[in-house]
Amino acid sequence: MKFRDIGLNDQLIEAIEYMGFDTATPIQEEAIPVIMKGQDIIGCAQTGTGKTAAFVLPILHKLTGREENSINTLIIVPTRELAVQIEQQIQGLSYFVSVSSKAIYGGGDGKDWQEEKTALLSGTDIIVATPGKLLSHLKLGYADFSKLEHLILDEADRMLDMGFIDDLTQIFKKLPAKRQNLMFSATMAPAIRKFAHTLLSNPKEINLALSKPAEGVDQSKYLTFDNQKNPLLKSLLSERKDYQRIILFTSTKSKVSEIVQFLKKSGFTTSGISSNLQQDEREEVLRGFKSGRIPLLVATDVMSRGIDIKEINMVINYDVPMDAEDYVHRVGRTARANTKGEAITLVNPKDMRRFSKIEDLIGSIVPQKELPKELGEGPEWNVKKSHHGKPHHKGGGSKNKKKRFHPKKKFSNNKKD
Q1: Could you give the C-alpha distances from 220 to 57, 69, 217, 302, in angstroms and in order?
Q2: Residue 285: helix, strand or coil by DSSP?
Q3: Which pTM value belongs to this model?
Q4: Are residues 95 and 158 in the same domain?
Q5: Cβ proximity of 298 and 256 under 8 Å
């Protein structure tokens, strides 16, 4: 469906076309008309399907021409990166509409706090906030949400996983009971659905492609021993020198710096990003990645849901994520907005069962590729049964241990981010 056929006002249509969009994605086509009518929504759609625009566009449509000076919409998200991403998208889509917005998140200084306080006091139309930082402002009593009309929770599953339920409960007590509630998530576990029905009133449920990477993602896996990962990584990147943007995800903050050092010594232009960096440092790294100045970004899962760059060529999972759902979010960084992308996962013996759960979740076996011959044999796949009760395919490894590759250095730090 064309955006012009959904019923959005002319100013928004002009902004959408200016950004190069014409046709609505499935989640946008289903959600926008429902939100415009004022009904609550619980929406489940995979990362990269245009979920943000699905709730931002109808809110901007409602706010067009609004003259009241009060906070109209509150969008709550789990991470500062996602808050910045959504606020930037609001600015882009509201280019021809007089709507104000402000992102409120932790990690800033006194100047940031004062700017956030001013935005809350001045009645900014749309506030995008992380739970902890918003609650800090609310406790001081100057934020007035009495005229709030829309509450949006994005990445609700992540917020519950991160333990924000108590903060959210306290925030909800400060909001008017009569409002439109919208909840969006890439996964919809029973606990999330139960939480949704305590918050939403007779919601319209929209479920699209639950927990599956976008169709444009070419997924594959390599079975490796830990000491084969770096040589394999070097080989993979050397074969893809024409790729302009690659994200590599690892499980710990310490590994980020170790991998960055290895890649730089191997001649690759790269930078790392994790919660160890200050907010301004993280934003500078992201600017470099978006501009193409930094073609290779090494990150922890703090980034898996907080970056919206449409032309990411490849995602590499240096480590299998702890939660199966996180695989969807990591892989969802590529092949966004109907483009193509590549996702490669390095699976060591201890992570095989975890990766098997990922395959169960996405409903398919990720194709396995052979290691380069110079690396020797990798481990064999040793998970006997899949979710479907059928024997899993064997790995390409051999029991001949003489051919295994054993460089001197390997990672051993298991401290989690």
Answers
A1: 35, 52, 10, 23
A2: helix
A3: 0.64
A4: yes
A5: yes
